[in-house]
């Protein structure tokens, strides 16, 4: 990291977006006391991560990318063991484990060994294990990486439920849809620096343009661009793998002119669509590339 400044309010879901290597996981490890900061200060739940690391760990829950579940334990056994690590034992541990299994929808699978769980079930059990001591802040480092869409939606539901209960959530992700669905506010990190911060809606509104996508459908990129030319209100053109994205002030009115110019030059293209700015567009504006790492080429 090259120096970042973040403030997260109690009770919110805060998203931390960026490509691999941008500094997301390093930031989380510093805040979770797993990695000492080389400079500056950091506090979590009002506690300095360097001066009082043990107190920070008592106040946080952590679910990192790597799911560390014992394959021969059942879900119930794993949660009761985790409770014991926080001094919750006996009947209290059994009661807390049962509560958490119900919270994440694993009651029916509670007495199965975790090696029989699906990826989504393992992720939900990992979430439950991070919640045994009712943390004030929950750190989730790319919690849905590798999950299918249905499992991802289930994890989203659990995160919302956890946050509704009063837990602050610090979420790192590479999925823009995930950030849009879950986050009250978010920050985009690129090459160790914060390049954008705000609510998803405010960040999208700041762009002030529509995005018209013209599917190439095999047509030559340069010829198609030349035919479209300079549209009224055109701010930028981005050539993607199989389409041209036109950033214009008024998308709907631009479509008729685009079609007229393409028809004039006899150029056949694929679908033409218009959309309001997305978080993908916000990321492109802030960093000059797509979050997924696709190579984009401004014209």
Topology:
Blueprint: E1 13-17, H1 24-31, E2 43-44, E3 47-48, H2 53-59, E4 60-63, H3 75-85, H4 90-103, H5 119-129, E5 137-141, H6 149-164, E6 168-173, H7 176-182, E7 185-190, E8 193-198, H8 200-207, E9 210-215, H9 221-228, E10 234-239, E11 243-248, H10 251-264, E12 272-275, H11 279-287, E13 297-298
Tell me about this structure:
It is built from 11 helices and 13 strands. The protein has 299 residues and is an alpha/beta fold. The strands form 3 sheets. The chain has a 6-stranded mixed β-sheet, sandwiched between helices. α3 (75-85) packs across α4 (90-103).
Describe the structure concisely for a colleague.
By secondary structure, the protein is α/β, with parallel strands linked by helices. The chain has helices spanning 24-31, 53-59, 75-85, 90-103, 119-129, 149-164, 176-182, 200-207, 221-228, 251-264, 279-287; strands at residues 13-17, 43-44, 47-48, 60-63, 137-141, 168-173, 185-190, 193-198, 210-215, 234-239, 243-248, 272-275, 297-298.
């Amino acid at each position: 990291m090259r120096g970042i400044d973040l403030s997260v309010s109690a009770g919110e879901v805060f998203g931390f977006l960026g490509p691999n290597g941008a500094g997301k996981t390093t930031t989380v490890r510093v805040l979770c006391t797993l990695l000492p900061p080389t400079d500056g200060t950091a506090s979590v739940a009002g506690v300095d991560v360097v001066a009082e690391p043990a107190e920070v760990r008592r106040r946080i829950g952590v679910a990192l990318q790597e799911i560390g579940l014992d394959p021969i334990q059942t879900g119930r056994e794993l949660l009761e063991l985790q409770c014991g690590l926080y001094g919750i034992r006996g009947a209290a541990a059994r009661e807390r484990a049962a509560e958490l299994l119900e919270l994440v929808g694993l009651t029916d699978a509670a007495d199965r060994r975790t090696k029989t769980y699906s990826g989504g079930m393992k992720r939900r059990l990992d979430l439950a294990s991070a919640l045994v001591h009712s943390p004030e802040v929950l750190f989730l480092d790319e919690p849905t990486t590798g999950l299918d869409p249905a499992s991802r939606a289930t994890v989203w539901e659990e995160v919302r439920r956890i946050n509704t209960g009063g837990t602050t959530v610090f979420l790192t992700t590479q999925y823009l849809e995930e950030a849009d669905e879950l986050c009250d506010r978010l920050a985009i990190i690129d090459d160790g620096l914060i390049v954008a911060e705000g609510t998803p809606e405010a960040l999208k509104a700041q762009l002030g343009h529509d995005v018209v996508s013209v599917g190439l459908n095999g047509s030559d990129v340069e010829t198609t661009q030349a035919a479209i030319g300079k549209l009224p209100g055109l701010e930028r053109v981005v050539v993607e793998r199989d389409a041209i994205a036109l950033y214009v002030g008024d998308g709907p009115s631009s479509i008729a002119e685009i079609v007229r110019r393409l028809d004039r030059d006899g150029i056949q293209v694929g679908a033409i669509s218009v959309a309001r700015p997305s978080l993908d567009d916000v990321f492109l504006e802030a960093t000059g590339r797509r979050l997924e790492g696709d190579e984009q080429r401004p014209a």
